[in-house]
């Protein structure tokens, strides 16, 4: 197994385990066992658990934002902000949804993991910038961002995908009053 294949298997295992059980609850041996990668190769790919967590979050960020953008970009420009919440509802309805992996990671590790904090903040900055571009202004985009984050936290805690619907209604109201 080459380095890239091992890295992919490790990241697949880490994502599944970290998201389902939490970062601190999952040891490197569990990642090794789930991935089928030797412990020696694991540490060649990721010398420390923090390196693996950061790589997991970066890969999750890329895939998550790409999926959101692909969904939203299929809509006419005036329907793109509401489409964000339709996409969120679909995500909130997936089996195994446990809220935002970035918020979960930050809440679990906090300032004790500055590399993780940096990745989480980068993800949130990129999402906010994307929403600002959809909304057409920084102020409106920031309000939409707050609705997205709130809906995600509520859905993660309650298990109710309808949090996306409430936030979508609020976003549509903001859009109407902004025009």
Automatic annotation (TrEMBL):
Q: Which UniProt keywords apply?
A: DNA-binding, Transcription, Transcription regulation
Q: Which Pfam families match?
A: TetR_N
Q: Which domain of life is it from?
A: Bacteria
Q: What is this protein called?
A: AcrR family transcriptional regulator
Domain (HTH tetR-type) ranges: 4-64
InterPro entries xref list:
Homeodomain-like_sf, HTH_TetR, Tet_transcr_reg_TetR-rel_C_sf
DNA-binding region(s), chain positions: 27-46
